[in-house]
Amino acid sequence: MTVTQAPNVSGALETSDRVASHLHPEGSFDVADHPVPSGKEEWWRFTPMRRLRGLQTDAPFAAGGCTVTVQAPAPATVSQVSIDDPVTRESGFAPTERVSARAWNAVDEATLVDIPAEAELDQPIYLRHTGNGSDVATAGHAVIRAGRHSKATVVLEFSGSATVADTVQVIAGDGAQLTVVAMLEWADDAVHHSAQHIKVGRDAKVKHAVLTFGGDLVRVPVSVDYDGPGGDVELLGLYYADEGQYLEHRIFVDHAKPNCKSDALYKGALQGKGARTVWVGDVLIRKAAEGTETYEMNRNLLLTEGARADSVPNLEIETGEIAGAGHASATGRFDDEQLFYLLSRGIPEPVARRLVVRGFFGEILLRLGVPDVVERASAIIERELAVTGN
């Protein structure tokens, strides 16, 4: 087996069966393995480091920064387990950067959401996180485990003022059908870094969605790997950035098993001076992943002057024996043809602009399929549109 040093990854190795891309560094639970980032690294090159409030350096973590309430229909259970419990390593997650490694080592317990095998829940499970202030940093960890052939929806809600670094692991057993929605509706002063990892069992289907509306700085890297053939993942993202906000989303899908699927669709709207969003997508198709079918799409709508959206889709393909692979990215202002069509039918321009934005996000909301979340997200979008009169 040939071993070569991988570029731009401190201490990481690239082998024929394990690829350490500069886009997705090797993981480690040891904080010492993750040097303090300078902001020049590929992983951090977009992020305004000074706005992380020391989460990437040595800011102390304290308890009580967030209050968590739980709503879980039977037979699902929610409990606290030791961070050293084997379930916290079941997904194969390991922090790939310093913030998540620090957060992992700062907590003694993890919240475990357990859905038994064969269970079908007719109501979502809710974990509601309410920030109690942004002056001190808080760390958290959650594990969502869906048993074989179960069917469930889990909603993670975040609101209030806080400085939070957390990790979320999602484990979908063989044949499970699991929807996980992260609803980030922070106050304007919140800072949130949330590393989320998904392990997909044989023939399992996972829908994962991130809806980001508030916060001063929010950064959500999502990673996916497969535990058997036939896995199917749908990654959805919806974000709306206002003046001065920085919202960054990243995905990494590691296709290492044959005949698996992944479909990523993230859409964002930006308004106001200094509104900034970043989306980075990376899909790795390994040699063993024959029959892979994957597509990633990011679209951004600039509603005012002074906003900026960066979009970087990537594909890394090691085998030609795949069903299909592609990516696309588009960033622009209102579609003139759509506006003209609506205006020509007597619809006032402010109303026409609202209709265009609603239509832009409509595909995400339709695919989301969680009525309560869709209703709330739609209401937030309407409030955001009212800010600039769009």
TrEMBL record:
Residues 131-360 form the SUF system FeS cluster assembly SufBD core domain. It comes from Nakamurella aerolata. One of its GO terms (biological process) is iron-sulfur cluster assembly. InterPro entries: Fe-S_cluster_assembly_SufBD, SUF_FeS_clus_asmbl_SufBD_core, SUF_FeS_clus_asmbl_SufBD_sf, SUF_FeS_clus_asmbl_SufD. The gene is sufD. It holds the Pfam family SUFBD_core. It comes from the Bacteria. Belongs to the iron-sulfur cluster assembly SufBD family. This is Fe-S cluster assembly protein SufD.
